[in-house]
Design brief:
By secondary structure, the chain is α+β, with helices and mostly antiparallel strands. It has two domains: 3-46 and 172-381, Naphthalene 1,2-dioxygenase Alpha Subunit, Chain A, domain 1 (Alpha-Beta Complex); 52-147, Rieske [2Fe-2S] iron-sulphur domain (Rieske Iron-sulfur Protein, 3-layer Sandwich). Helix content is 22%, strand content 26%. The chain is built from nine helices and 17 strands. The strands form four sheets. A seven-stranded antiparallel sheet has the order 11-17-16-15-14-13-12. Strands 4-3-2-5 form a four-stranded antiparallel sheet, with no helix packed on it. The longest helix has 30 residues, at 316-345. Mean pLDDT is 96; it is low at 1-6. Residues 49-156 form the Rieske domain. InterPro entries: Rieske_2Fe-2S, Rieske_2Fe-2S_sf, Ring_hydroxy_dOase_asu_C_dom, Rng_hydr_dOase-A. Keywords: 2Fe-2S, Dioxygenase, Iron, Iron-sulfur, Metal-binding, Oxidoreductase.
Length: 383
């Protein structure tokens, strides 16, 4: 851990302009205007890093994972040389989807016209193309997508000119490094289709104002501190002397060996802008990753990871089950209230309301998005 870790000191809240008392929630059009959404896709989602999965999902040569992204169908595949690569999941002939789901393959064959690709993306065969003048295989391999891996987490980016992932993360590794996410493995995952704007899901995940109300029957009321950060991320820590990743019982797993003193004080809830949350408790990590689909529709991915050593205990699955139940139950409670909020935002009479000090990260995230949008879009919202 670098010496800059000492600068990551929690505060009661982190506030940005406008000052507390004057700050209001974002205009309703921030969440309901299709033109704002299109601008976000163009200027944010297609130009920044987003979470695509864990390396252990594609651990062996031939393993693959197909996924939807803001830039279209994508494919993660481990080559025969052991190298993990990312490609557009479309055939170079007429753009058919090549693979679906997760699995293992010795090569990639288009189900439409049987164009055949090696695991490194090069074109191996194209039936009937031998008779086509000037056709050559080398230029027609799968189109790569920029990819970087940090602590076992796979990120993709459609912009070749964007800063690298290390720059994007800033000082995040300093704070969460002692969790050693690279030594963890994914053991659980669900996807939830939601009827709400993508920003609502991330905002909700970064404030504890709602927890005693929306989650009264599950996690209950929580208190948190906030962290000033450098880079494109935000962080709060829900204070608790034990893991909050289970409900109403002692955590079945021990504290991760070697956790920093600050990390032992609670659970970090982070957002790597624009769409990725890592929540790091004293005994595990889980993520929320959001894929924008439309101005009022999103896909929420939720997954959980444990240190690999925990998964080797004979009763691991029984011990892990309470974590899975908690992660799914809380996610569904959040989705339920956010879908209602989306409906409320469509009201002609809805107006921005005053923010609480517990909305500090909501304001910070709103400001981050608006700073990345063209001026005429921000003016259009009246922000």
């Amino acid at each position: 851990m670098s010496s800059s870790a000492t600068t990551l000191v929690p505060e009661p809240y982190v506030w940005t302009e406008p000052p507390l008392g004057d700050a209001k929630s974002a205009p309703t059009s921030f969440y309901t205007d299709p033109e704002v959404f299109r601008a976000e896709i163009e200027h944010i989602h297609l130009k920044t890093w987003f979470f695509a999965g864990r390396v252990e999902e594609v651990a062996s040569p031939g393993d693959y994972k197909a996924l939807g992204t803001v830039g279209g169908p994508a494919l993660l595949v481990r080559g025969e040389d052991g190298v993990l690569r990312a490609f557009a999941n479309v055939c170079r002939h007429r753009a058919s989807i090549l693979l679906e789901g997760c699995g293992h393959a010795s090569n990639i064959i288009c189900p439409y016209h049987a164009w055949n690709y090696r695991l490194d993306g090069t074109l191996a065969g194209a039936p009937g193309m031998r008779e086509v003048p000037k056709f050559e295989k080398p230029p027609h391999g799968l189109i790569p997508i920029r990819m970087e891996v940090w602590e076992g987490n796979i990120f993709l980016n459609y912009d070749e000119d964007a800063p690298d992932l290390t720059t994007h993360l800033g000082n995040m590794p300093d704070l969460v490094g002692s969790h050693r996410m690279g030594d963890m493995v994914r053991t659980w995952h669900i996807e939830i289709e939601t009827k709400c704007n993508w920003k609502l899901l991330l905002e909700n995940a970064m404030e504890t104002y709602h927890t005693g109300i929306v989650h009264a029957a599950t996690v209950g009321a929580q208190r948190s501190v906030s962290f000033p950060t450098s880079g494109e991320w935000h962080c709060i820590q829900v204070q608790s002397n034990r893991s909050i990743a289970v409900l109403g019982q002692e955590p079945p797993f021990p504290v991760i060996e070697g956790l920093s003193e600050q990390s032992r004080k609670g659970t970090y809830f982070t957002v790597v802008e624009p769409t990725t949350q890592f929540a790091l408790a004293q005994d595990c990590m889980w993520w929320l990753a959001v894929r924008p689909v439309a101005v009022d529709r999103s896909v929420l991915s939720v997954g959980g990871c444990f240190p690999e050593s925990y998964t080797r205990v004979p009763d691991f699955e029984a011990r892990a089950e309470p974590y899975y139940k908690r992660w799914e139950a809380v996610a569904l409670e959040d989705v339920g209230i956010l879908e209602k909020q989306q409906v409320g935002l469509s009201s002609l009479l809805a107006r921005p309301g005053p923010l609480s000090w517990r909305d500090d990260m909501v304001l910070a995230m709103n400001r981050w998005v608006m700073a990345h949008l063209p001026a005429h879009i921000v003016d259009r919202m009246g922000a």
